[in-house]
Amino acid sequence: LIIVLDFGGQYNQLIARRVRECNVYAEVHPYTMSIDEIKKMNPKGIIFTGGPNSVYKADSPSYSKEIFELGIPILGICYGSQLMAHVLGGKVATAPVSEYGRTEVTVDKNSILFKDVNKSTICWMSHTDYIAEAPEGFVSTATTPNCPFAAMENAEKNLYATQFHPEVMHTEEGMKMLRAFVMDVCKCSGDWKMDSFVEDTIKSLREKIGNGKVLCALSGGVDSSVAAVLLSKAVGKQLTCVFVDQGLLRKNEGDEVEAVFGPDGPYDLNFIRVNAQERFYQKLAGVVEPEAKRKIIGEEFIRVFEEEAKKIGAVDFLVQGTIYPDVIESGLGKSATIKSHHNVGGLPDYVDFKEIVEPLRLLFKDEVRKAGRELGIPEYLVSRQPFPGPGLGIRIVGEVTAEKVKIVQDADYIYREEIAKAGLDKGLGQYFAALTNMRSVGVMGDERTYDYAVALRAVCTSDFMTADCADIPFEVLQRVMTRIINEVKGVNRVMYDLTSKPPGTIEFE
Ligand code: XMP
């Protein structure tokens, strides 16, 4: 185990993730964690993260000197490196020249950290303070024209520090440095794999939950599915999964989820499917404003879930499929509300439970997928593209009706089928059909038609904050168009949405 001690930087989970990529398990903990707790966890190494403060200011995050006397190897990164220098008697000051971005760094190849790295290597810097004087016993192991201690170390005591960020991609040889720290300095064995995460998590869930009752809102998405399977493996029938079919799922999706998690599926759990389609359609009747629709869908979901939870009675634990990016997003919360996102995050107030369990809280999406595969969850569930909580409700512009849901489901199904057939599905961030609120005149078999227009959307994105329209081959689009017009009643026009995000958003509402 490597402990990543969080001093408030942006890349903390990324550090843990990079360490896990070396097949060594890492966890992020706040810098307020006590020295006794650290000793109890018996880590093989500790990494101090970056952070926005200045170490010499009185109220900046710090750690007692004792941590350097435990004999545990420590790597300080950015703020963490300055903290190491400051606490051990070196001097940290405002740098005469701040360095931001890609910076050429000259390293000392005799340092164990840089033994596999080129003498001159590009690293990512982001600092206004710097180490002006190293503490006693330390030597400089990397420099830039403006930074005499771009890295320093006291090899005898296994203390290492880098002013730059080895964890970010822009530090071209950063992985080699981190690998050298965890493997050669900390002497980790490097045999941790996703199956150890799965195994350890199941074990610790079992210990935590004991004989308790557990409730999970299952959406059929990747995160809640993986969380549910972990819980089912840990506590079997003590787990009840409630799956609300709000009538806004993709074609056949409700049955697919039931096939996997229901009584005929491979997992040991109680599965309740609530068919609440009519209820949702009634609430949505006549509503056209996107935020109003989102609100209704979110609230109705909670109500249905609450009713089911009441039938079960008090539970001890509520499972949430929160993953790491959700943690960051909810932490920021200062940006303007473009759309009010709906997911199970709003549940806790409404259900009688004692504690929340979030077994995926430390994982990135691709790590969740890996865990899912490790657990034997079917590939079509594990590699599923993101699907919003309000479902097709926000892919039908204007009023939602059962008839429109059917149209968009059928069109979307054809689109997804053709994209997969053309082998394009793996390369796209998200792709789906939406139903515009526009009807127009057409002609089919010498008859006049007055039907809806379907919009096809496909975007390339890695973070879903920005996105580009995907370059789908014209013949694929044409095939999709022909099939939708021929096979889906009520549609006489198909369009392809070229808009990037921004200015568009990925979903239509
Ligand atoms: P937008 O449309 O905001 O979507 O560009 C960005 C990503 O977020 C998904 N999305 C949601 N996910 N609840 C969710 O869980 C929501 O209410 C919601 N709205 C949008 C969207 O599918 C895309 O991946």
TrEMBL record:
Protein's name according to its UniProt entry: GMP synthase [glutamine-hydrolyzing]
Entry keyword set: ATP-binding, Glutamine amidotransferase, GMP biosynthesis, Ligase, Nucleotide-binding, Purine biosynthesis
Catalytic activity: XMP + L-glutamine + ATP + H2O = GMP + L-glutamate + AMP + diphosphate + 2 H(+)
Binding positions for ATP per the UniProt entry: S219, G220, G221, V222, D223, S224, S225
Subunit field text: Homodimer.
PROSITE patterns: GATASE_TYPE_1, GMPS_ATP_PPASE
E.C. number(s) listed in UniProt: 6.3.5.2
Active site residues per record: C78, H165, E167
InterPro entries for the chain: Class_I_gatase-like (IPR029062), GATASE (IPR017926), GMP_synth_C (IPR001674), GMP_synth_GATase (IPR004739), GMP_synthase (IPR022955), GMPS_ATP_PPase_dom (IPR025777), Rossmann-like_a/b/a_fold (IPR014729)
Source organism per UniProt: Coprococcus hominis
Transmembrane segments: none
PANTHER family: GMP SYNTHASE [GLUTAMINE-HYDROLYZING], GMP SYNTHASE-RELATED
Pfam families: GATase, GMP_synt_C, tRNA_Me_trans
Gene3D superfamilies: 3.30.300.10, 3.40.50.880, HUPs
Function: Catalyzes the synthesis of GMP from XMP.
Pathway stated in the Swiss-Prot or TrEMBL entry: Purine metabolism; GMP biosynthesis; GMP from XMP (L-Gln route): step 1/1
Signal peptide (UniProt feature, chain positions): none
Listed GO CC annotations: cytosol
Lineage, opening ranks: Bacteria, Bacillati, Bacillota, Clostridia, Lachnospirales
Keyword Ligase appears in the UniProt entry: yes
Keyword Ligase appears in the UniProt entry: yes
Positions of the GMPS ATP-PPase domain: 192-384
GO molecular function: ATP binding; GMP synthase activity
Class of enzymatic activity (EC top level): ligase
Coiled coil location: none
Encoding gene, per UniProt annotation: guaA
